[in-house]
Amino acid sequence: MMQTWLLVSLLLSLSWAQRSEPMFRAMTKMVLPPDYENNPTQLNYGLAVTDVDGDGDLEVLVAGYNGPNLVLKYDNSREVLYNIAVDNKSSPFYALRDRQGNAIAVAACDIDGDGREEIYFLNTNNAFSGLATYSDKLFKFRNGRFEDLLSDDINVRRGVANRMAGRSVACLDRMGTGRYSIYIANYASGKVGAHALIEMDEAASDLSAGIIALSDVAEQAGVNKLTGGRGVVVGPIVSQVQSDIFCDNEYGPNFLFKNNGDGTFTDIAGQAGVDDPYQHGRGVALADFNRDGKTDIVYGNWNGPHRLFLQTSANRKLRFKDIATQKFAMPSPVRTVIVADFDNDQELEVFFNNIAYRGSSANRIFRVSRRDHADPLIEELNVGEAAEADGRGTGAAVTDFDGDGKLDLIVSHGESVAQPLSIYKVNQGSSNNWLRVIPRTRFGSFARGAKVVIYTKKSGPHTRIIDGGSGYLCEMEPVAHFGLGKDSVTTVEVRWPDGSSVARPLVASEMNSVLEIPYPQTEGKEQPAEIECGQGFAADEKGLCTDKDECTEFPSVCSGDRLVCINTFGGYKCRPNKRCGHGFEPNEDGTACVDIEVCSLGLSECSQSEGSFSCQCNSGYWLSSSGECADVDECQEQSGVCEQACHSDHDSFHCHCQAGYSLGADRKTCLLA
Ligand SMILES: *[C@@H]1O[C@H](CO)[C@@H](O)[C@H](O)[C@H]1NC(C)=O
Ligand SMILES: [Ca+2]
Ligand SMILES: [Ca+2]
């Protein structure tokens, strides 16, 4: 009886999803027909999107496991993708093939600040965990070709090459300098194989002589943890602009590394409710699904419940809340997870890439639609020809190859059966508006970790994070892709990991185009542009759109039996007044009394029981007589820490230099500019 019911409900749900128009159509035969050179039938894994050949167009990097790595470039006249990393020793891309590597993950970012992205391949060989027999490779374009920095003499002497079996790899601008570190989610065996963080050691390097010395700074940064590493995302998750890191791990809790503001990290996954200790994470992505300006996290668990964690801050307490429906959460052998607006209707979709494993397992797609006074609506769509029920999916990425403003999907396969890559185009939404935004670093490279917000005529702000990682074993394109339906954009705002920002109006002729946003070289000198922020928002003194606090601006906006005003992102709510006893306060709806949250996140290690609490403050804070963690004035406490001026703010201190000086690499001394 039970089984019949299950079957009936499964059929119902399938037919419902299939009734909607199919999202994807297969284009592999036209765009990338399987052949030995361009799309070999081999075991592939991760994908990354970057400009490999430096011509301004994006290519797709493919981590080849039992064959070469590939670099797929789009030829506009022939309308095909082809591999430029050809089997010819005089090709500038030859070294990238690295057949011996058994690569599974790949990511690209500018580690030395020359404006061009380096490429990191994570090679596991046949090792599942712990030590591998062949090291990872970090390729830089120099001497007219790509060469491996990790095998330079200086780096061999420094013993910096990662020789561990890892999984995902991601890029992190931990200090906001525009020079990136490589985050490596190793898979530990006992005490061997902690997560690694490789970056340029500026003091030991001599860029004018072409010497790039690398170091593993994972211990110093506080991320050298032992776990079964899987997916990694990088961007402002709980921080406003600085890059945080989320890792969904296997056989252990996830990590949510909050950036302490100085390039070191504190794991707050447990406090934030995203540690998920009994599940085994895979693909992961960042998005703001409910458009409240806070970054949400979506990820798949291997044959476990998939999660859609909305970031909330009810009663000032930062928590993530899982809003996955039963259908969305349904366990599957999931690999990459992608969030994007495929049909440009301005709502986000979540694509699950499943690997056929002990039987068929189709890929799936869900639309997550924002609602005004409720959590987003999650509905399954018809994935169409991208179902690949028997595909051994191992990775996937999106970009817009052909420049038509709609995302194209590329899926890799491998693990247990050699299969070629497949390419899909989106059937729907051709008449919808779109905008693609590419922020650049101060060096002119892709600003991975930046946050891009557009303000629109009708639908309020939309936020994208240029993720330094994402998917599983993958790294998405360094582009903020916005679908807009019939709406249009009034203002574009970019916030870089160092806190600098640009906001500028969008003119009508810039709709449906790719917008490059350079790093602001003249910050503070230019007058902020006149911008239109839309209802509920206003430009602040820095020329950025910020949420209006209606409750302060219009003190009597709430009345009657809903007297209490609660400011929200882009609006406000009125709720009934409620009296609560000592140690308690009303919840956000005023329907119940909850503990007063004093041990707020990031400030303290806290044990709180009903109506009482005890706090131990984190470094940088001290326990005040009222029992709250308050700012330590570090400039006072450690007088002389800065060579010239010192300024302390809520969680750290910053040194400043007088005119004519600039801050040194240690961020404390001042150098004559
Ligand atoms: C290899 O590449 C070089 C330089 O691009 C070219 O001149 C040569 O003909 C190529 N060799 C083969 C066998 O294709
Ligand atoms: Ca290119
Ligand atoms: Ca570079």
From TrEMBL:
Stretches assigned to the EGF-like domain: 631-671
Signal peptide (from-to): 1-17
Keywords, comma-separated and alphabetical: Disulfide bond, EGF-like domain, Repeat, Signal
Pfam families registered for this protein in UniProt: cEGF, EGF_CA, FG-GAP, FG-GAP_3, UnbV_ASPIC
InterPro entries, A to Z: cEGF (IPR026823), Crtac1 (IPR027039), EGF (IPR000742), EGF-like_Ca-bd_dom (IPR001881), FG-GAP (IPR013517), Growth_fac_rcpt_cys_sf (IPR009030), Integrin_alpha_N (IPR028994), NOTCH1_EGF-like (IPR049883)
PANTHER family: CARTILAGE ACIDIC PROTEIN 1 (PTHR16026:SF0)
UniProt name for this protein: Cartilage acidic protein 1-like isoform X1
Organism: Huso huso
